[in-house]
């Protein structure tokens, strides 16, 4: 029996200016995306790219910021109906250079961290952010679909 599993690899990054307590949020419009709302920037890992390289590239492409020393703070994952697994490597960065600019992926802006719950957030952003900020948590896992949505666990 093969232990190999087809996998889709992606990333997101919580970019925080620790002096101002603001974070970068990206708004994805429902007209142009299969999911919408405010979320952290990120994207797919390309072939031949390390996970850290991919999040640095994706953040630059989507925000104009160059992050340094991104820290892996957790993983979000779930099974797909196709038998594949979708994995999101969750990073945090507090060191960056550049000027914030939006892209075709969505409008980006600095948001005060305590105002995030008041935004039109993408699905599961608040519990995902809680996992990313918790020193004793490292995985956000959707086990399977139920009638009411997904059964999720945080480890």
From TrEMBL:
Ranges for domain Nudix hydrolase: 5-133
Top-rank taxon, per record: Bacteria
Gene3D superfamilies referenced in this protein's UniProt entry, alphabetically: Nucleoside Triphosphate Pyrophosphohydrolase
Enzyme Commission code: 3.6.1.55
GO MF term set: 8-oxo-7,8-dihydrodeoxyguanosine triphosphate pyrophosphatase activity; metal ion binding
Statement: the UniProt record of this protein carries the keyword Magnesium: yes
InterPro entries membership: Nudix_hydrolase, NUDIX_hydrolase-like_dom_sf, NUDIX_hydrolase_dom
Keyword terms: Hydrolase, Magnesium, Metal-binding
Entry keyword annotation includes Lyase: no
CC cofactor: Mg(2+)
A Pfam family: NUDIX
GO CC annotation, single: cytoplasm
Cross-referenced SUPFAM superfamilies: Nudix
PANTHER family to which the protein is assigned, alphabetical: 7,8-DIHYDRO-8-OXOGUANINE TRIPHOSPHATASE, OXIDIZED PURINE NUCLEOSIDE TRIPHOSPHATE HYDROLASE
Family: Belongs to the Nudix hydrolase family.
Protein name: 8-oxo-dGTP diphosphatase
């Amino acid at each position: 029996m093969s232990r190999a599993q087809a996998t889709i690899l992606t990333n997101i990054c919580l970019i925080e200016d620790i002096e101002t307590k603001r974070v970068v949020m990206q708004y994805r419009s429902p007209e142009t995306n299969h999911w919408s709302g405010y979320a952290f920037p990120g994207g797919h890992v390309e072939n031949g790219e390390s996970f850290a390289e991919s999040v640095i590239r994706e953040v630059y492409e989507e925000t104009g910021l160059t992050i340094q020393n991104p820290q892996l703070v957790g993983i979000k994952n779930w099974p797909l109906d196709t038998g594949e697994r979708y994995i999101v490597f969750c990073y945090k960065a507090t060191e960056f250079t550049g000027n914030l600019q939006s892209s075709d992926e969505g409008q980006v802006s600095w948001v005060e961290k305590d105002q995030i719950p008041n935004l039109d957030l993408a699905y599961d952003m608040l519990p995902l952010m809680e996992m990313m900020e918790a020193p004793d948590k490292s995985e956000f896992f959707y086990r399977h679909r139920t009638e009411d949505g997904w059964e999720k666990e945080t480890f």
